[in-house]
Sequence to fold (390 residues):
Amino acid sequence: MRYDKGRKDASRSRIMEVAANRFRGDGIAASGLATIMKDAGLTNGAFYPHFQSKADLVRESMASALETQSQQLQQALASGGLELAMAMYLSPEHRDHPQTGCASAALLPEIARQSPETRALYTEKLLTLVHQLAKNLPPRTRDREGVALGVFAALIGALQLARAVEGTELSDCILAAGADAARALIQPRQKHEAS
Amino acid sequence: MRYDKGRKDASRSRIMEVAANRFRGDGIAASGLATIMKDAGLTNGAFYPHFQSKADLVRESMASALETQSQQLQQALASGGLELAMAMYLSPEHRDHPQTGCASAALLPEIARQSPETRALYTEKLLTLVHQLAKNLPPRTRDREGVALGVFAALIGALQLARAVEGTELSDCILAAGADAARALIQPRQKHEAS
DNA sequence: AATATCACATTATGATCATAATGCAATAGT
DNA sequence: ACTATTGCATTATGATCATAATGTGATATT
Fold:
């Protein structure tokens, strides 16, 4: 190696971090590589030694963001349980900072349009998050994975709605409604036998 | 008027319909005007007599798609109630055809990045949908609007997740989990007094 | 000290982007 | 029949897109 031992790795992680933030903030398709590289303190030409293509960067930075989210979730669960984790997810702070928040809430429809490989990687990381939630559901809950999926879906939808509407008041209402829904879903109660 | 009375209007609606489908299918940022115009049987130049800008087209086609959705929801509610409406929303058919499906599920994160005017228009149409759901909740439901918001959030989140993951089996599971969650949420039951 | 190597910069490519100016052919009003 | 109007096509603009070829300066190895 001619340069510092870890220099390339450092650049690479910087690119990935900048990209993850920009993708979540502005969307994948709307984010150009030139801007990402500039924000990382580099130029156009330095991109391809690090990644094969934009799709490659998307895949890796998405995975990295999801792993970080998994760690943060673990901390929240450890310190305050599901209640705290859900409260943090539907907080105004999270709503107002999509760049550093949940990649699912910021990017799900775009992820659905990515390559099968990217979606397979997303699936893997998603299941990790869902398992983490499932393990922290109340003791007697049935169909833990299913309930956890339903809770996560409600959280994602509520956060997205809160970000999309105009008007802080309504947006706050949506966060509250999402929290109510999530709370209702985790109450242990048997299903599948209505009417 | 020198041309057929309704010719310009016909072209305009064709552009809007094509655009609404393409935006939902490929995303707003990823959809170019040239392609949209070609699909509408016209060329680049014919765009600006009809719309002031791409943002203008986004706003109008989004509103149109939401109004159509509102009508379809009304029909479903009338013929089969909330159960049918929810089942249709989380059906494999809806999952597999985002171009003609729910604009919220296909575009929410991108809508959140649009101008305040566009988001205000989205807010208006969203509230219409939520009111329609609220009116069809079971008789004794409290906080009808809040519950309806929670249900819609869960539906949107589940549909997006089902579209993003790789693997039909898992995707079907997510649809089922979303349906379970929505069903659980519409069971009349008092809230706000846990623990 | 010399040299080989590599991270990154510079610059180039051709496509596509949103937007705009101009041109033309068709028709409605006279 | 003439003419003014207009819906759309043609073509142009400059920006930005992802990707790629080439250049260069710093340094680790020798």
Q: What stands out?
A: Residues 1-4, 32-35, 44-45, 47-48, 53-54 of chain B lie near DNA strand C (CB under 10 Å from a C1'). The domain at 7-186 of chain B is CATH 1.10.357.10 (Tetracycline Repressor; domain 2). Chain B is about 70% helix and 0% strand.
